[in-house]
Amino acid sequence: MSRGKRTLFVTLLCATATCAAAEDEMFEDHHAHEHGVATLNVAVDASRLALQFRSPAMNLVGFEHRPRTAQDQAAVSQALEWLRDPAGQFQPSAEASCRVVKSEVTPPDWEDPSGHSEFAADYEFDCQKQAALQHLYVRLLEHLEAETKIEAQVAAPDGQHSTELTRANTRLVLRKPVR
Ligand SMILES: [Zn+2]
Fold this sequence. Notes:
InterPro entries: ZrgA-like
Order of helices and strands: HEEHHHEEEEEEE
Strand order of the largest sheet: 4-5-2-1-7-8
Structural class: alpha+beta
Mean pLDDT: 86
Protein name: DUF2796 domain-containing protein
Bound molecules: zinc ion
Largest sheet: 6 strands, mixed
Number of strands: 9
Keywords: Signal
Distance between the termini: 65 Å
Strand content: 25-35%
Organism: Steroidobacter gossypii
Number of helices: 4
Number of domains: 1
């Protein structure tokens, strides 16, 4: 019996954005560094609200070089103070009774060879009434340079969406209204 040409089956691995779990993909630390733009990735699950904030230092302190003056240093200290106060800067729907259970703030690496530097912050809130979690007010915008936009991406049980927040629009909708 002549054997047919052996067929090579190519196994398609789960290596693409569409295949990977949406949340994991969103939380990979790949993002553009664009002055005037910050990013906020939000994940809502059974009882947790997870936030990942990334911003060029420019948006928070107006420079990206190592602080040179007392004024520079004060600006950095102030920015870190805001970021270390997630309950003050990120306010979930009050009825959801959320409290901060994780807050990790990473100051900029002023020696980054790119010449750019960023602030990073990761937070988690534990929410007692997750069903009441409808919105997140991003007060931090009031402290960013006036024209800064936050590109927010939300992954919630009822789907994903992205929104742009500004000082004029600080309310991030976390789930679609029930119709
Ligand atoms: Zn930069």
